[in-house]
Amino acid sequence: MQMNMVSAINNALDLILQENPDVVLLGEDIGKDGGVFRVTDGLQAKYGEGRVMDTPLAESGIIGSSIGMALAGMHPIPEVQFAGFMYLAFNQLVSHAARYRSRTRSTMTVPMIVRTPVSGGVRALEHHSENPEALYAHVGGLIVVEPSGPYNAKGLLIKASRMQDPVVFLEPTKLYRLLKEDVPDGAYEVPIGKAKVVKEGSAMTIVTYGVMVPAVKDVVEQKGTDAEIIDLQTINPLDRDTIIDSVKKTTKLMIVHEAQESFGVGAEVAAIAAEKAIYELEAPVTRVAAPSLPYPMPGYEKYYTPTANKISAAIDKLMSS
Q1: Which residue ranges in the chain fall short of pLDDT 50?
Q2: pTM across the whole model
Q3: Catalytic status, residue 127
């Protein structure tokens, strides 16, 4: 069945609620209104207010309550309306959710999935277009996932719901309704911690994820470049083997992400390549990312984010190296 990402995630949540009676959804306006992007539309009517709960506007309270639920044997899936609002719950995630397994020598775990929209491209207001994946990936104990389309969004979410550790599930806002894919009706899993080779090639490796995957694919197809495209899918844990094997084959590496360049996921990928494939690299690693500035107001998005022209120019420069 053809689904966009909103439909695929809604379908996944429906299946998860059916499968596990301990699962509850909670967040601002997710019940009666179905969430700001209608991702949870219809689920409260189907499962009741006891399992799909509207909460006050209090992100720290939402995440703190979810941690308590998880420790008590439930499997909460809280939604934070936008990633920029989740900073208010950062302490709850870092000091508690991420540490309970280590703190208790694995006698207690925090099975929960924190869902939140990320990235820009939709001309949103301040705090509505954040790319915080590196912040959460740096925290030991948090799994960080960022899908790039309907199929892997559904499969990754179902896989996350069957795990016993806290997962930060980042959903690119621009991709919610941008494209449709064939998505099976039933439950299936996409492995967490495994990257996907979206396109095989031999001229260079392009590592990307989330909102930039369709953008990179479009540029590569239009240019006819023999590039290998890798969709990370999971930011933490990172699939090092797929990256290293590809770089050793192509001998050139580019990383594309919408988040700020400094101290970002691209820096980690570049370091992995330098440590494990330095003798195979025939050119310096190239990064295409945003400048190290706060995400701008809507009128300046095209100057801030990696555009098709910027990606194309970077490919040309790396190919000529």
Answers
A1: none
A2: 0.96
A3: no
